[in-house]
From TrEMBL:
UniProt xrefs under InterPro entries: HTH_LacI, LacI/GalR-like_sensor, Lambda_DNA-bd_dom_sf, Peripla_BP_I
Domain HTH lacI-type positions: 11-65
UniProt GO MF annotations: DNA-binding transcription factor activity; transcription cis-regulatory region binding
Species of the source: Nitrospirillum iridis
Pfam families: LacI (PF00356), Peripla_BP_3 (PF13377)
Keywords: DNA-binding, Transcription, Transcription regulation
Protein name: LacI family transcriptional regulator
SUPFAM superfamilies: lambda repressor-like DNA-binding domains, Periplasmic binding protein-like I
PANTHER family: HTH-TYPE TRANSCRIPTIONAL REGULATOR GALS, LACI-RELATED TRANSCRIPTIONAL REPRESSOR
Amino acid sequence: MTKDENSGKRPTLKDVALAAGVSVATASYALNDVGSVGGDTRRHVLEVAARLGYRPNLSAKAMRTGKTSAIGLILPDLTNPFFPALAQNVVHAARESAYSVFVTDTQGSPEAERAAAQALIQRGVDGLIWFPINDEDTLAELTGGLPVLVLDRDNPRHDLIQIDVDSGGRMAAERLIRAGHRRIGVISGPTDVRSSRQRSESSAEVLRRHDALAWHLHNAYSFDLEPAVAAAVADGSATALCVGADLIALGAINTLRQRGLRVPEDISIIGFDNIPYGALAFPGLSTINIPVEEMGIEAVNTLLRRIAKPTESRRRLVFDVTYVERGTVAPPPAP
């Protein structure tokens, strides 16, 4: 054993170089997979480092390079199953590029959102992936020149990744029209978010053209329905529902079952998001799929590109959505 293995002292880069019989520069190149180092030498240095239990000093590296190889992910509500799925994909994509991710949940609070961003910035993250709680740029005074990638919302200062919500809303409404429904209710998410409004408005526009809009109501992104929404869902005024989020749609199914109504025999439902729970429901929830894996990967790649090239032109990428047929759409019940 080496002296460092017996002493309990954390091995340094110099210790690795000495044990491997190479210069400190060569050891550094080998461990960081950079520079001109032969394959046999690189493997030898890595084996020695593993035997010594060498771990890079990330704080020292950050002081030397000005980079921490860490990014922050700010999400509005981890109780909504869409966001843990998004976080998982961001973490996996970042790991592929040797980046760590600090994930924080703002619980829908502007104050918590600002506090989370400030804490992440103080910890020296190289950039932020931010899914804001609404369309306001609440972090404008905090981020300065820090690279920021914004998901879903509009923001004139940062790179954006969004989805084609208009197309998704139209798909849902047109599918219910094709199934024969002519009394269709629309439930949207919060009205202070443009993308939420667009999902439901694009559905409502299609339904108005077919004289098929029964009503249009709003609900929080929650399994629990507002009293007015729960009453409308179950009062027979609509034979089908276009719902702006799967979580709300699952809440509607639960409300209908409590009132003795069947899905899709008595009322059809289409959600939006394609959260994992939707596929596990019975019947499985028909929905509009958001490509969350691709969004997570592209969010990381776009942010890392911005970190590497901060003066590049601002980018906006819009992902297509698709309709997923499961078991909650059927023709309307006979009169």
